Amino acid sequence: MSRRVSLPSRLYLVSFPNSTRSNLDLTNEIFKATDKTDILCSLVSTDFSKVFDRVNHNVAIQRLIDLGLRPSITSWIVDFLRNRQQAVRYHGALSEKITVTCGLPQIPVKWLELKSKLQDMYKEGRRYCSLQEVMEAIGSPPKTTTTEENAISILTFWHLCGDIIYFPVQNLRNFVILEPQWFVDVCKTIITIPQYRDREVKDEWDRLQETGELRDHLIDYVWSHREEALRYNLMEHKQELLDMMEKFDLVLRCHGRSEEETGPKCDVAGEATYFVPSLLTSVKDEKKLYPPGTTCSKPIFVVFDGKFCPVGQYHRMVISSMRRYLSVKPQLAYASCAKFITSNIKRQTFILTKEKFFLKVGLVSSVKDEESCFSHGPSVREGLEEDLTDIINKWVPGIRYKWCVRCGCEGHREKEDADSFLLIEDLSATEHFKSGEIVCETYAPATTTVKEAGLSDWFRNPVPQTAEETLAYPGSLPTVSQDYFHLVVREVCPRWRELAFRLNLSPANVEEIDERHRGEPRKCCRAVCDRWVQLNGSSATVEVLKDALMSIGEVPTAENIDE
After folding, report:
1. What CATH number has the domain bearing residue 159?
2. Mean confidence (pLDDT) of the chain
3. Residues 312 and 373 in one domain
4. Which of 282, 274, 285, 267 lies closest to 212 in space, CA to CA?
5. Three-point CA angle 318, 324, 330, nearest 5°
6. Helix (DSSP H) and strand (DSSP E) numbers for the chain
7. pLDDT above 80 for 192
8. Which residue range is the domain that position 510 belongs to?
9. What's the distance, CA 78 to chain centroid?
């Protein structure tokens, strides 16, 4: 028996470097389609690169669009083919140029010459070179571009071909690795090879193996003692090598020197610390995550479209949370979950877990008061939302996700369906709070209550509190606290640093906010307010905010905040 397998449109035509992910997705779809023994699956693949040699470019592009080609890739191909002209040279005579609608340009001779020169450098014992050396090797560029732009274009091409390693970003644009295998050997000195683990730094190796935390001191020791084995002084370009390892997700910077800095950030003795995902272990002691005497919230989920969550997404989320809560230690990170303390009183934490195609977030608290037990939930979710946006835009553009809670309707309870998710957004959450129920998408009109879903643990309830509740908890932030923050941002944003220090944010927190938002006063001021709530939970009261405003001379703004 055979049948036709309909593959999701997202599998069609992805650009480098996402081809590995595409192949994995494709293989997964085929395995699911052939899960039963009576089904035969035939796969037909078409190489569209050959089409462009024989078919009109406009026709080929339209066909790719019909198949679901991403707009970002379409525009790249169109730009590559636009205004292509060719001329014929015969015995020194050059014909007039004509516009071509078929065929792709071949690799220019100068590009091949550069590749040959780079190979000669490697044979002479060089392992890397500078952008300036490349520009000198190329010579004069075409009239329509600069020497540097021309060099970067050629280097990027050979990088995509796998012949060299080059990234045209600010901190790596002047560093070209001539042989990828040499870079792999450099990575082995830290990540995989036991022979490099000298007894003199045993404690550092043990920490790396047990926690995945790589200290700057260990890097210095290993690389300064491996100069002869690798036939090169790695310390000469230490930071470039580490930055390049970060590009491949081999190490991720927790704190210390940032990409745009030349000196260390505020940290313990200024030492940079890195995170090595491949060395993280599984949880050996559950009590470290869920200590006796603590209470756990209902979880919330980050569900990715297409049931695909890159492992690197989890690791970068862990790093972002480590940076966000840098002043509160200790944090715990494992291969598939991580725990973060959110306030200086250390009574409220959250746990981030990688499960299948989604991330699960749960709150843990030792606060006995039921109303303020999980008061840190909304701020945790908002912080994770900010980190998700930054990570996706920078590393995996195009991937989509949604916030969900688990459905507790009778239909799902009977089936014990662990993946029964309900989409929740800020606007829909308000409506759910008003009605007190959420309608199940699978078994409508069946419902699950707001309490069963744990909605109030993660979203601010806009429904007015009763007079009795208001009197019982006078020190908690009112549900309209976001309006207060809007007022503070509007009136105080130029003095956001002063406000941050008056709210007892650490210098590391202030610098991290400045770096994340590139010094934009309004964004930085709002981030200060959010970070203050995240670190202090229920202790972040209106009265404290007003005192901080008055202490920096913003009396009118403080007076406009009415409890």
Report:
1. 1.10.10
2. 77
3. yes
4. 274
5. 70
6. 24, 19
7. no
8. 471-559
9. 29
